[in-house]
Design brief:
It is a single chain. The protein has 7 helices and no strands. With about 170 residues, the chain is mostly helical. The two termini are about 35 Å apart.
């Protein structure tokens, strides 16, 4: 059913992606993160080839091959050099985020045949919010959970909610 597809889009595109991306950022370097994130189109392409049966050509195969070589070099460098700013676990978390985003993209493409982008976005974020609710409740039950929130943090929250989302939508 379409509702199940919306749940999958929310779970993979909002929840799994965000959780593993930010946990990965805590444990690996920005350089490793940026290179792994650069592989996102490759994962989406591979998922499209496998699940949507899309066609590919020789140039696409070369692009995939070159991207994976760069990815393997990062992983090997992390293992051999014991890079302190990067960790294999952090890199793995970023890879999980990238794969979850690819899954979300494939399901979104299926939904976009029947629904406009605004509808998909609305339901994805609404359903995704419910999956984050247990984390909110857990944090809210902690004593002084707002103590660390500064006025800069409040401005950042309002900017994220209004500036980069709601206002940008109407531009």
């Amino acid at each position: 059913s379409d509702f199940l597809k919306f749940v999958i889009v929310a779970l993979f595109g909002i929840n799994i992606n965000i959780i593993f991306f930010f946990k990965g950022l805590e444990k690996t370097s920005a350089l490793s993160t940026s290179i792994i994130i650069a592989l996102e189109p490759i994962f989406i392409l591979l998922a499209s080839l496998i699940f949507l049966k899309e066609k590919f050509n020789k140039n696409i195969l070369w692009g995939i091959f070159i991207s994976f070589i760069g990815f393997i070099i990062i992983i090997i460098k992390t293992i051999i050099n014991e890079d302190k700013s990067s960790s294999l676990l952090g890199d793995l978390f970023i890879i999980i985020a990238v794969i979850s985003y690819a899954i979300q993209t494939i399901y979104t493409k299926n939904l976009s045949v029947k629904y406009p982008a605004e509808t998909i976005t609305f339901w994805s974020f609404l359903i995704g919010s419910f999956f984050f609710l247990p984390f909110l409740i857990s944090d809210a039950l902690q004593p002084n959970w707002l103590k660390g929130l500064t006025y800069q943090g409040i401005i950042g929250i309002f900017y994220g909610a209004l500036g980069s989302s709601a206002i940008a939508y109407f531009l």
